[in-house]
């Protein structure tokens, strides 16, 4: 069996801000390892740095250059604006980049005005002048299309909330920041799952076809498992693997509540699932959402305020997690029929990101 190797593009994962621009601009990356060319297409899907966002918003607000066409792609505009204002490399030119590049001088002038208005000299001072807590965060909920269609869910929610559909993730609804949906009947019945935008992109990025066999390698509590099941319209087969006994029960409960009958829950260490086992010979896709530091959500977690927190314990934990993630990714790559892997994790640099890599293998 040929062993697939991640080549070259792992640096995308680590290259921070530039890589975040890759979503719309990187279409094909080839990496050669002698006679093995395995990693042909890679896409970094999510990319909003919380700290840059308010600056970019203020700049756009000041210059008002976005036509309605570009407003519909606002997130992409923020990323390109980031590159124009703070990037160090030449931009790859698509239509969106060309459009904003024409406004480069106006945008830079707006940033200069913002510095004056905020009474700071440098952009780094500007960044710290924004408080994360000042950013209103919308609430998201993902419709379980195994139980309910999007229109019916919208009709129901609109009785109570101002709600709209997300432009990027089908079936994802956006609610106002303070909407509390935990006790909503549609949530209780498993027709809707409370899942943030980043998490909701994972199954969509995997893009499973209804007849596929899929492994969800680190599955509990199972929100992504049931999202994959819904995208497969309840057909095909999902093997949902979970190591932790208590969490296996949670996973089973989620699957049952969602009515996802094509999911087989396995209480096992993913690393012990043998790629040579005939039971997995037809597995075409793997969703890999391994335990991670959550550092990409550090602003919400506030771990550093815990009495047990020390910088050393954090480093130790990160090293262990990183070693596990590497093993798990290598293991996923060793399944013979796998064509697609989505690897999802959070990481932090001086900004905060969730990283989602889609690997299409041949
Ligand atoms: C980030 S959570 C997964 C979240 C899940 N994908 C979801 O969206 O609901 C990671 C899970 O992987 C499990 N896990 C950790 N190591 C594992 C291993 N070696 N094999 C299988 N599961 C593992 C953890 O117990 C945890 O439940």
Detail the topology: elements first, then pairings.
Blueprint: H1 10-14, H2 17-20, H3 22-25, E1 39-44, H4 52-63, H5 68-71, H6 74-86, H7 95-102, H8 104-117, H9 123-129, E2 139-143, H10 150-158, E3 164-165, E4 172-175, H11 185-188, E5 192-193, H12 197-206, E6 213-216, H13 223-231, E7 237-242, H14 245-258, E8 263-267, E9 283-288, H15 298-301, H16 311-333, E10 340-348, E11 352-361
Parallel strand pairs: 6-7, 6-9, 7-8, 9-10
Antiparallel strand pairs: 1-11, 2-4, 2-5, 3-4, 10-11
The structure holds S-adenosylmethionine.
Quick rundown:
The protein is α/β, with parallel strands linked by helices. The chain contains 16 helices and eleven strands.
Q: Which structural category fits the helices and strands?
A: alpha/beta
Distance between the termini: 13 Å
Total number of helices: 16
Strand share of the residues? 15-25%
SSE order, one letter for each helix or strand: HHHEHHHHHHEHEEHEHEHEHEEHHEE
Weakly predicted, low-confidence segments: 1-51, 295-302, 348-353
Order of strands, main sheet, comes to: 1-11-10-9-6-7-8
Task: Provide structural commentary.
Belongs to the class I-like SAM-binding methyltransferase superfamily. RsmB/NOP family. It comes from Anisodus tanguticus. The protein is α/β, with parallel strands linked by helices and 362 residues long. The protein is 40% helix and 16% strand. The protein contains 16 helices and eleven strands. Strands 1-11-10-9-6-7-8 form a seven-stranded mixed beta sheet, with helices on both faces. The protein has a four-stranded antiparallel beta sheet with strand order 3-4-2-5. A hairpin with a 6-residue loop joins strand 3 and strand 4. Helix 4 (52-63) packs across helix 8 (104-117), helix 6 (74-86) crosses helix 7 (95-102) and helix 12 (197-206) crosses helix 13. Mean pLDDT is 76; it is low at 1-51, 295-302 and 348-353. The structure holds S-adenosylmethionine. S-adenosylmethionine is lined by residues 199, 218-224, 241-244, 247, 269-271, 289-291.
């Amino acid at each position: 069996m040929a062993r697939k190797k991640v080549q070259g593009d792992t640096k995308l994962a680590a290259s921070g801000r530039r890589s975040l621009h890759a979503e719309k601009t990187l279409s094909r990356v080839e990496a050669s390892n002698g006679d093995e060319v395995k990693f042909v297409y890679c896409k970094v899907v999510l990319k909003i740095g919380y700290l840059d966002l308010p600056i970019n918003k203020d700049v756009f607000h000041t210059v008002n250059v976005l036509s309605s066409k570009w407003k519909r792609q606002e997130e992409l505009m923020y990323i390109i604006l980031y590159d124009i204002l703070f990037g160090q490399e030449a931009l790859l030119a698509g239509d969106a980049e060309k459009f904003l590049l024409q406004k480069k001088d106006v945008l830079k002038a707006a940033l200069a005005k913002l510095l004056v208005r905020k009474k700071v000299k440098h952009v780094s001072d500007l960044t710290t002048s924004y408080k994360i807590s000042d950013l209103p965060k919308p609430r998201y909920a993902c419709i379980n299309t195994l139980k309910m269609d999007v229109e019916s869910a919208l009709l129901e929610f609109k009785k109570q909330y101002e709600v709209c559909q997300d432009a990027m993730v089908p079936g994802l609804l956006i609610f106002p920041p303070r909407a509390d949906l935990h006790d909503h009947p549609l949530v209780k019945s498993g027709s809707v799952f409370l899942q943030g935008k980043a998490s909701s992109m994972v199954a969509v990025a995997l893009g499973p076809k209804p007849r596929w066999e899929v492994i969800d390698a680190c599955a509990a509590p199972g929100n992504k498992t049931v999202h994959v099941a819904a995208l497969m319209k309840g057909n095909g087969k999902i093997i949902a693997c979970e190591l932790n006994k208590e969490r296996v029960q949670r996973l089973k409960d989620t699957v049952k509540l969602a009515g996802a009958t094509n999911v087989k829950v396995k209480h096992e260490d993913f690393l012990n699932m043998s790629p040579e086992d005939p039971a997995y010979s037809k597995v075409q896709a793997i969703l890999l959402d391994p335990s991670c530091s959550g550092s990409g959500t550090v602003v919400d977690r506030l771990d550093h305020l815990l009495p047990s927190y020390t910088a050393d314990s954090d480093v130790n934990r990160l090293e262990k997690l990183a070693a596990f993630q590497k093993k798990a990714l290598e293991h996923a790559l060793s399944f013979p029929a796998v064509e697609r892997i989505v690897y999802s994790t959070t990481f932090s640099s001086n900004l905060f990101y969730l990283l989602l890599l889609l690997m299409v293998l041949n």
